[in-house]
Amino acid sequence: MLRNVYLNPRLYVAITIVIALFVLSHSFEWLFMVSQGALLFVSLTVLLEYFVIKSQVKHISLNREVAENLSLHDEQKVYYHVSFGGRLGVNLQLVDELPDQLQIRNFRENTTLEETETKSIEFSIKPTERGKYSFGQSIVYASLVFPGFINFRKSFNNPVDVVVVPSIIQMKRYELMTMAKTATLIGIKKVRQVGENDEFEHIRGYQQGDNIKSINWKATSRRNELMVNQYQNSRSQQIYCVIDKGRSMKQPFDNLTLLDYAINTSLVISNIVLKKYDKIGLISFSNTFESFVKAENKPKQLGIISEYLYHQKTDFKESNFNQLYKRIIRKVSQRSILLLFTNFENNNDIERNLAYLQGINKRHLLIVVLFQNTALKAASEARANDISEVYVKTFARSTMLEKKLMINKLSSLGIQTILTEPAKLSVDVINKYLEIKAKRMR
Predict the structure, then answer these.
(1) What global pTM score does this model have?
(2) At 118, is the secondary structure helix, strand, or coil?
(3) To bridge 167 with a disulfide, which of 45, 264, 293, 344 should be the other Cys (CB 3.0-4.6 Å)?
(4) Can you give the residue ranges of every domain in the chain?
(5) Residues 294 and 281: beta-carbon distance below 8 Å
(6) CA pair distance 175, 276, nearest whole angstrom
(7) What DSSP character marks residue 352?
């Protein structure tokens, strides 16, 4: 049982004071009796505290609460519910064996519990890798509020495995924002619709400003009030998220790779596409054509895509756009909208694959999504104080200029592009999709 007992810094302070008294007693004899009394007091107090805290610690219970599925790169809470049924107040220090992926080595939470009290402690985590996360034992170190010379350890064998998946939190947030009037608050633009809606939805009462051409005279005569036909945008467009898993997508930003940003955004846009009654599918490729989910609008489609996205991993291989072109021509027969998440680093990369991109764009509406290097942007805007900083700034500007030339090259060939910062990826892709819907582009 003694292996669960740990000395508190307060005890070391008390022992130091006793030693100091014994040292001083060589000069002041009357302090010798005081030193002996102090030593006896500390010894008896430690012994008494041991038996008291040992009897109290069995009344401590702890329960960890964590979601089974955590969202990638979102701040989430882990809750610890600590209960104490003893008669004396105790100080508690909570230590938990957190998953290795979180890289948190100094987790400590301190609290005080009075008689028959329950407290909840919350701790924020932000996963940056997909996969299984394993929580181990939880441990509490209990001591009396006073004097608190020793800590008694109690372990709780409560291991649990949770899964970090593409961001469900972002998916739900962007869904609410896109469908609500608050969309503009996060950068989602309202795009003016071109032409009239062409697909019948339902009949409703006439409202001021409605087009008189849409009045339904049969329904009006039956209801004895003006009724109009309500139309909506054409549905059932096919949209594919095409994810490049080559070496260029391994580049990190804010603890995530570009692939992870593409995966999170693919889940976000997939949900919105389904809410807009369009069909959504998924394609991933690297040096080979790897995953293909046919575009559908069925209840289980989002779950299927989420499962595929969870298992996507990048490597350091060169992306094969030739294979991508051949497989898309073979597997996607109906004209579709293709959102290609990739990252061409220089003009040579894009020149090598330009013919394949043009070939895809002839049969489908291709939108190439490229990432802007925020570190280079900051370097290009920073003030240069010496020659080396001038060189870095010049290099940053030339690299950014080359990226803009790539965009211009693609645009001149009729290929639509999005150049975005990783943090703004979801908003920019949503805006592009809504623009396509409003302008009836195919």
Answers:
(1) 0.81
(2) strand
(3) 264
(4) 1-165, 168-193+234-439, 199-232
(5) yes
(6) 11
(7) H
Query: What is the CA 165 to chain-centroid distance, rounded?
Result: 9
CA 440 – CA 442 distance, rounded (Å): 7
Helix then strand then coil, % of the chain, to nearest 5: 45, 30, 30
* CATH architecture, domain defined by 168-193+234-439: 3-Layer(aba) Sandwich (3.40)
| Structural contact between residues 25 and 35, judged by C-beta atoms closer than 8 angstroms | yes
Whether 133 and 163 have beta carbons less than 8 Å apart is answered as yes
Per-residue pLDDT tens over the stretch 352-375: 999 999 999 999 999 999 998 888
CATH architecture observed for domain 1-165:
Sandwich (2.60)
1-165 and 168-193+234-439, same CATH topology: no
What does the pLDDT look like over 65-123, one tens digit per residue?
999 999 999 999 999 999 998 888 899 999 999 999 999 988 999 999 988 889 999 99
DSSP string, 250-317: G-EETTEEHHHHHHHHHHHHHHHHHHTT-EEEEEEESSSEEEEEEEE-STTHHHHHHHHHHT----SS
